[in-house]
Amino acid sequence: MKDSSSxxxxxxxxxxxxxxxxxxxxxxxxxAYYHDLVIFATRYTKELxxxxxxxxxxxxxxxxxxxxxxxxxxxxxxLLKTVQNKCIDWFRHKKIIQTHKKxxxxxxxxxxxxxxxxxxYSELNERIENALKLLPESISETFRMNRQKGLKYSEIxxxxxxxxxxxxxxxxxxxxxxxxxxxxxxxxICFLLASGFIL
Length: 199
Known about the structure:
Blueprint lengths: L8 H11 L3 H23 L2 H17 L10 H19 L2 H4 L1 H6 L14 H12 L4 H11 L5 H8 L3 H18 L4 H10 L4
Helix pairs in contact: 1-2, 2-3, 2-4, 3-4, 8-10, 9-10
């Protein structure tokens, strides 16, 4: 099985173009990873504005250092690690580390993220979509109406012409199946669902 942290041939081609000053290569990297990296940074900062600034700084640095940059891991791992380091620097700069020293340094769950195995928004969304296809249509449609369209249980029950209890059961079944099918990624999925990033 291919190591997800190793650099692919396609990435080598894109990086070669980037190093040569090809702005279209930079633009494609930005488009592919910007949104995912903002979500990743938000797990640290809990503030969207600061997360966007950190990711923007990361891409500015990538462009400014393009001619000398050396990436031996995958582009995904490199960008995640860079953003992770910038988030830590951001905490230090804001002196939050002074008041949360024990939380950040001694027992830091959010700083213990393994960037090589971290699933991006796009990867998680794809896994969820594949899992939903395994569900009966009535259950998957109910789940989508609630999570994707933001409808309340009572609204879904009225639209589908069933009882509120049936809607509750369908959502419960969907979550149960998703939890089993995506058990290795459920914590990350719950975070993104709660944050409104997916579905």
